[in-house]
Amino acid sequence: MIKQLIDGQDFWAEIVKRLSKGEKTNFFFSEEEVLQLVQKGKISRLDFDGGVYFFVTEENLYRLYYFLEKEKSPEVLPRLQQPIILEEVHLATKERIPSKDTWEKIGFQHYLERKRMYLMAKNIAFEEREPSFATEEILEEIFLLMNESFEPFSSALPTKEALLKDIQEQRVLISLKNQNLLGFLHFGDEKQGSMLWHIAVLPQARGLGVGEGLLQDWFLARKDIAKKFMLWVRTDNPPALRMYEKHGFLPDGRVAPVMIKTT
Asked: What would the pLDDT profile of 194-209 be if each residue is shown by its tens digit?
């Protein structure tokens, strides 16, 4: 039976205990994030012999996180009304545990795969340009382009309210021509680095260097803060891969296969 979690502190104590025991997992939330999810009623659990599933509820899907004891395998999932998304981050040179075949046996299918890339700030040749930050007046256009440019299940698209907050905190860069939006870049900061979350260019503006200009603006905007620039890119997106490689981004060995269960 699936049960909604109601005590965030007890839940976090359980997570710490499971992690200390070295159980297999794809759970990566911080204590603050865990407490917020429980407070908002967005996380529930399903216990089974040798493990537990945690379901994070989003608008049109469930995200699946798990803990498995050593030598234990995933159990069959309950039938849910929305798709279930499973993402695991691991080293490209290391076999996934549980394996892809194991997940397929309980109804998951391959959806897409991303790899992580990085660029050290000390290796960047900064251009002379003035980054343009988004303003609240252009929120609707950015939100529309964002939702038209990314698939809905694994892109971690922000709500309009969250995007507005990031615009107000200058985490969204834009490219304009004659006051018309050509593209945007959405980023956040992590430890000593800066992470690119989303970048999109209007179809009619592609091939004009808009994406590369937005990358340069990102570098300039965080050059005094970030020691490293990071991003995740789909492995089936050659144009994006070529652009990042051209600017010196290198794979750091991490890949993130995403699987989906729809029935």
From this structure: 999 999 999 999 999 9
